[in-house]
Specification:
This protein has about 240 residues and is α/β, with parallel strands linked by helices. The chain has a single domain, classed as Decaprenyl diphosphate synthase-like (Undecaprenyl pyrophosphate synthetase). About 40% of the residues lie in helices and about 15% in strands. The chain has seven helices and six strands; from the N terminus they run E-H-H-E-H-E-H-E-H-H-E-E-H. The protein has a six-stranded parallel beta sheet with strand order 3-4-2-1-5-6, sandwiched between helices. Strand 3, helix 4 and strand 4 form a beta-alpha-beta unit. The radius of gyration is 18 Å and the shape is globular. The two termini are about 15 Å apart. The chain binds 3-methylbut-3-enyl trihydrogen diphosphate (2 copies) and magnesium ion.
Length: about 240
């Protein structure tokens, strides 16, 4: 199914949820689900890029995920190291630019070095930019922006929505058009609070490791059928028939 280019979201944000339940359904430990989740992400990057999505931002570890058992947290951190080593070369050759967004304090020197290496090795790639939100929270992002504004001595009247947006981590990326959450929960879980102000929301019961081409096409078709009004009046051109 081909969608018109202007109906393809430029930026898709994804809460990759459901790894634990996917593993549980197979009587396997949660880590097995996280491993399958990394493979699903690698496949999804290609699929979104092939469909013309320019920016993909994925939630990999939230500020709140520290509440998980220590072995799950260290398993997830280890997985990032392994994935960086295993997939970096293919990301470079496939034209994928990788960026890590999130609080770099509290993660090990080794992990930070792996991130910097991934960012530098893919810095000139242009097919799709993937921002991996790791140790990220929407509230953390807002607070770090405030701190930077205050530290710069910015006068209060210079603070506008545009100025504030420039201080957030995704300042150089357009706001997400489509916000997908897999795994059946219908909540933001502190992901892109500011940036998702006008994103179209798409929730699916599909567990993240199973989120493949058919599910991506279903999400994009749903997005293409929406009438985005941004607070304006209903656009009569697209009509009330959302199936069009
Ligand atoms: C999402 O899957 C991955 C991370 C939060 C790291 P979960 O681990 O939350 O999986 P469920 O929600 O327990 O199934
Ligand atoms: C959100 O999923 C975070 C990530 C996918 C990284 P969670 O599984 O942590 O969210 P809650 O706890 O169900 O809200
Ligand atoms: Mg979850």
């Amino acid at each position: 199914m081909e969608l018109p280019v202007d109906k393809i979201p430029k930026h898709v944000a994804v809460v990759m949820d459901g790894n634990g339940r996917w593993a549980k359904n197979r009587y396997m430990p949660r880590f097995f689900g996280h491993k399958a989740g990394v493979d699903a992400l690698i496949r999804a990057i290609d699929l979104f890029a092939d469909r013309g999505v320019q920016h993909l931002t994925v939630f990999a570890f939230s500020s709140e995920n520290w509440k998980r058992p220590a072995d799950e947290v260290s398993g997830l951190f280890g997985l990032v190291m392994v994935a960086a080593a295993k997939y970096l070369e293919s990301m470079v050759s496939k034209g994928v630019r990788i960026r890590i967004i999130g609080n770099r304090e509290g993660v090990s020197e080794k992990l930070r070095a792996a991130w910097t290496q991934a960012e530098e090795a893919t810095a000139h790639n242009q097919r799709i930019t993937v921002s991996v939100a790791f140790n990220f929270g929407g509230r953390w992002d807002v607070v770090q922006a405030c701190r930077r504004a205050m530290a710069s001595g910015m006068p209060p009247d210079e603070m506008t929505e545009e100025a504030f947006a420039r201080l957030l981590v995704l300042s150089d990326v357009p706001d997400p058009d489509l916000f997908i959450r897999t795994g059946g929960e219908m909540r933001l879980s502190n992901f892109l609070l500011w940036q998702a102000a006008y994103a179209e929301m798409y929730f699916t019961d599909c567990l993240w490791p199973d989120f493949g081409a058919a599910e991506i096409d279903a999400a994009l078709a749903s997005f293409a059928s929406r009438d985005r009004r941004f607070g304006g009046a209903e656009s009569w051109a697209s009509g009330s028939d959302a199936s069009g």
